[in-house]
TrEMBL record:
TM stretches of this protein: 6-22, 34-59, 71-92, 112-132, 144-162
Species the sequence originates in: Psychroflexus planctonicus
Lineage: superkingdom: Bacteria
Gene: mreD
Cellular localization per UniProt: Cell membrane
Membrane topology designation: Multi-pass membrane protein
Main location: membrane
InterPro entries associated with the record: Cell_shape_determining_MreD
Keyword Transferase: no
Family membership noted in the UniProt record: Belongs to the MreD family.
Keyword terms of this UniProt record: Cell membrane, Cell shape, Membrane, Transmembrane, Transmembrane helix
Name of the molecule in the record: Rod shape-determining protein MreD
Length: 166
């Protein structure tokens, strides 16, 4: 399968998994896993920034369409697509700068840092836009922390399952 086909398949699977299954999970009434940002996180490293922003907007807008959320997913996806090069440089250092980075070959610590920063940034923006009030700051932080931890766990599990063997 070509790279384009793989990315289209990943887009559709993550979107359908999020909409049909994961949006119906509410642990303790407020913890909801979001794994669709994995599409943006696993985009090719040599992808143009404009293309990454377009794909992120498309993923977020698609989810907003299904959930009728008014653009909060699109905005949060755009934020993580925009900060992605900075987070990659911070997490992987010189390997990213010299374009020698192979995501699955890097150490667990670097992958964990990258995933955690991207997930918590996404969740913080999404829950902040959802609440849209400083009065609910503690609720935003609570939702970000617990949903972020659950999402991080699921994404690490998914990455281990789809990891390409040598």
């Amino acid at each position: 399968m070509s790279n384009y086909g793989l990315h289209i398949l990943r887009f559709v699977i993550l979107l359908l998994l999020q909409v049909l299954i994961l949006n119906n999970i509410k642990l303790y009434g407020f913890v909801n896993p979001y794994i669709y940002p994995l599409f943006i996180i696993l985009l090719p490293l040599n992808l143009n920034q404009i293309q990454a922003l377009f794909l992120a907007f498309t993923m977020g807008l698609s989810l907003d369409f299904f959930e009728n959320t008014g653009g909060i997913h699109a905005a949060s996806c755009l934020v993580i697509a925009y900060i992605r090069p900075l987070v990659l440089r911070f997490s992987f250092g010189i390997n990213y700068d010299y374009q020698t980075l192979k995501f699955y070959n890097e150490g667990f610590k670097q992958r964990f840092n990258y995933l955690a920063i991207m997930i918590f940034a996404h969740h913080l923006v999404m829950f902040s836009l959802e609440a849209f009030s400083f009065q609910h700051a503690m609720l935003v932080l609570k939702n970000t922390l617990y949903s972020g931890l659950f999402s991080l766990f699921l994404m690490l599990l998914i990455i281990q399952l789809i990891r390409k063997e040598k």
